[in-house]
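In this supplementary section we document a worked example of the pipeline. Step one takes a protein sequence of length 250 as its only input; no multiple sequence alignment statistics are reported here. Step two produces a three-dimensional model, which step three serialises into structure tokens for compact storage. The input and output of this example are shown verbatim.
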Amino acid sequence: MAKPVVIVVGADKGGVGKTTVSRTLLDYFSANNVPTRAFDTESPRGTLKRFHPDITEIVDMTTTSDQMKIFDTLNAVSPSVTVIDVRAGLLSPALASLRDIGFLDAAKAGQITFAVFHILGPSIASLDEIAETANFMQGAKYFLVKNFINDTQFFQWDQSTYNSYFHRIKDATDLTIPKLNEMAYEQVEVSSVPFLKFVANKGKDDEAANYSFVLRGYVRHWLANVWSEFDRIKLTDLVGAKPGVRGGEK
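The serialised model returned by step three reads:
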């Protein structure tokens, strides 16, 4: 049986676009034929589940019973990749819970592949999160994500400040999620479908849709740039898959 892979996507600050990043990850794995399941911790409504209802379950990660739903089933389910979209403000407490249940020790021992996509905002306060989160990163792949989806400028990040924070973290890798055209992003939101389905002009049940050719082009180009970042960090290698012809690429 393949070693379980757990990817946590989160931030201690809200409004940085973490669920958007989770959605791109699920599309990327789908296009690379990697079976994946997801947990949306924005209980009770859940944004991720709205876009990926077939593979996403809404959980309250602060409760022991829902933690058991996620981690007691890692070796009992066919998808070996689990993506956890951690709601705003819960990243550090969630990582502390993973420490307390022995998950981080299991990752350090090589029993589980663990990765954290830490979505950063533009402020120094967001960079301050790194110091706290870094305490939990032994045995994990740590990705620091600058997400421009919300027109973020990262205006406070002069190079010396940036280096002073990023150099504290051994083996951290930074990623950039480019900005998507506002109208295209809004149309995907209204459609409530994965980015891949929007590009393919398909509705929720795979029926033909009538999305704008122009907006689909913007999403296709943006998604290709996001995926090139995932290719750069060898994400398919991380989850034990072999990259091939992607299902969503034409």
